[in-house]
Amino acid sequence: MKYAQYGMPMFFVLISLIYFILTINLPEASLGDPNAPRYFPLMVSVFLFVVSLSYLIQVIRKGEKDNPELKQLFSKRILFLSISTLVLGVIYSFLFLRIGFIPSTILFLGSLLFVVNGWRKWITNIIVAVIFTFVFWYAFEKLLHISLP
Amino acid sequence: MGIDLHSIMQGFMTVFQPENLLYVMFGGFLGTIVGMLPGLGPATAVAVLIPVTFGMDPTSALILMATIYYGAMYGGSVSSILLNTPGDGSAVAATFDGHIMAKQGKAGQAIAACAIGSLVGGLIAVFGFMILVKPLAHFALAFGPAEYFWLMVFTLSMVVSLSIGKMNKGFISMGIGLLISTIGVDLQTGVYRYTFDIPQLSSGIGLLVVIIGIYAVGEVLYNYLTIDKAKAQKNKLGRVWITKEQWKRIKWLMLRHGPIGFVSGIIPGSGGSAASMQSYSIEKQISKRRDEFGKGAIEGLAAPETSNNAASVGAMVPLLTMGIPSSGTTAVMLGALIMLGLQPGPLLFKNDPNMVWSLIDSMLVGNIFLFLINIFMVGMFVKILDTPPKILYPLILVLAFIGTYTMNFSVVDFYLLIIFGIIGLFLKLFDFPIAPLILALIVGNTMEQNFRRGLAPSDDGFGIFFGSPLSITLVCLTVLSVFYPFIIKQVQKKKNQKNINQDENMQASD
A19 and chain B: CB distance < 8 Å anywhere? Predict the structure, then answer.
């Protein structure tokens, strides 16, 4: 955790460098000034590099304040909640068009509720997952006339 | 110039159509409910509820979104008072005295004072809006590409400079927003930029994907950190009205802080948080009861509440007249307007004046409606605070996914939503201000187009950017906004040093 404070500024320095390299390698425009698509991104990349570097120097000189929230994120329970949510999100994205809105949403919302609300409240979780899936479906499909798969 | 009575009356006729009145009420209810939920502010409320406006008539959509916005401002104060958990920065000042009042068994009086202050602030600001909006829109027509470029730079620098104590992070956040705005096909030359041969990226990253990802998904992930903590004790409401004596104490101060909040809202980057804090400290300095501040003084609650609601209306002035959002929430609203095919700015007044005036009039009606529901129905609303977050957060996540899908009907946006959710989480964890990122993302494209348009007809290259008095004024204001916090810091330091020296001299002479 001690070196985690350097991670964020270094990440931004790296991003600005990659962005700069990608910008100078952009294809030339066939119409008008060939460098026109590069001007603004070049300005942004230089600006981002300067402010990120200054942030890195600031962290090295003064150190970041102790970040209890970051430590908390890496606690077993919160890490489990966060990663499960993201993984379930990816699975939902994969299933959404394949099996349709209603089954995929009942599965996604139900699983999320089991992860976040716990297994003991399984009746509540199932009822909420089923009812709210149909509420959302009705609101978008029937009231707002937005087609869902 | 001045107040255009004919347009105002026409606007009222549109607002009083049953359909639009229904949207005012619906938006008011939804905004209040979402704003009341601990940890969720007006920006999240608007972001999560944007999909509700899809397929609607643009005027109705605009009315609905604006009501959601200030409905959330009203709602945020209730959770500040009852739970001591403000939904966003602008509701923080309500905790100073509001929560203390609730602890003293005066929660109903505190909520009533908030509602009255918000109503007065809102009404003052709407009248200010009516007076200012036309001359400002007219003034904005004088802006050329170079002036617009500097106006956007100025707005961004203001937003960043107000991130007190974390300007560097604000600038990084802004840089990332500008970076994201350059992804996709360059519209002037057709060059593909940073798309990595992914066809879905050719039209750029959807603004709302970023907004919903950061504000909804990121916010839920961040709120996981406190999900297992014991729920804050909800204080009992009691009678929701103020006493005669309390009315006497707040009636004049509301007239003071309405204009303060309105002006603060107009200034880019200032927004409701700065307005409410400013009003709190001004009132504390001039009040006869300054000793009671922080101990449940009704003045300490009414002043910031009047101010922040006036600021939320004031923030709509630069948004509608120049297309410049002045806060995170108005940035989210601008994104939604663009999605609806509207381009806020002076031409909006020329092309569709009825839409703009309907919106302004709806604010008047909406504020009165919100006042009524906050007084008479708050008992029902506070039951929302009993909803367990463990059920609420999964529901917000599902709504975020569905909302994202309805924009492009593409599941690729789901993956982007997850990525921006993670980015949002880390930005919050490392205390990066998010408003500059959203603002930069929104204005980035227009900024680049104006920058290049400014360069195009000019033989002296960058000289065109300093060619008019307006451009030079904006450059000076930008420089001033960047250095302002340092100047203030130095002045404060000198003042403190002077005080210490004086104390030492006095001790020595004793």
Answer: yes
